[in-house]
Amino acid sequence: MVQCMLADIDNSLFLVIGAVGASLWGLLYTLMQFYRIRQREQTRREIAAYVAEGSITPSDGEKLMRAAAYDPEAESAARVVVEAGMREA
Question: Which of helix, strand or coil describes residue 75?
């Protein structure tokens, strides 16, 4: 009887530790993704500001935005910067 109870505690403890570990991993992964996206958006805003003030040309701004790994959002943001630069010129 005592051995059966100890075996149940070991299995339950293993499951609890696994669940806590998986939850912690999920939380950390989500926070890491949030930080990565936040930094990428900050960079895009800074590039757009440089183009708007004329410090860099629209084509250079487009190149900078495309320099990161391919991302469909980056592609559309680069187009917006180029179009904005063309309207001001």
Answer: helix
